[in-house]
Amino acid sequence: MAAKKGSLSISSENIFPIIKKWVYSDHDIFARELVSNGCDAITKLKKLDMMGEYQLPDAYKPAIKVEVNPEEKTLKFTDNGLGMTADEVRNSSWGEPKKINKTTYEWGTSEQWVYSLDRYVYLENGRVTAIQE
């Protein structure tokens, strides 16, 4: 078989959907990605502490929990790090939401960013707390 030469051009607009489908359709890779996201959130919080922009409580212990619910057939991943900001979401592959539902409470604000019928980002006081897809 003779070698063929050519060029390949890939832009972020067409490669990210392919990567997303590949990564998130494999359950093992998806679970590792969620744990990795938790590690990133904890690292972000620790860096802010080191820079003096945040003070960790004395009893702070970094943690990532995975809760299994066999009855509902769900996995819940939680961490005690710092989530993405609203600006970080806007500058990510999520981009601008189609709609923002905002509720103001005594303790702060809660927002639901609507991207489509089945894609949402939830924020509390400007920080991501959950993603629904």
Descriptive overview:
- This protein is of the alpha+beta class and 133 residues long.
- The mean pLDDT is 84.
- A hairpin with a 4-residue loop joins β3 (99-104) and β4 (109-116).
- 32% of the residues lie in helices and 29% in strands.
Per-chain topology:
Layout: H1 12-25, H2 27-50, E1 64-69, E2 74-79, H3 86-90, E3 99-104, E4 109-116, E5 119-124, E6 127-132
Antiparallel strand pairs: 1-2, 3-4, 4-5, 5-6
Task: Name a few traits of the molecule.
alpha+beta; globular; 29% strand; 133 residues; two-stranded antiparallel ribbon; four-stranded antiparallel sheet
- What fraction strand? 25-35%
Helix and strand element order: HHEEHEEEE
Strand order of the largest sheet: 3-4-5-6
Q: Kindly state the mean pLDDT as a whole number?
A: 84
Give a count of the beta strands, DSSP E runs of length 2 or more: 6
Main beta sheet = 4 strands, antiparallel
Proportion of residues in helical segments: 25-40%
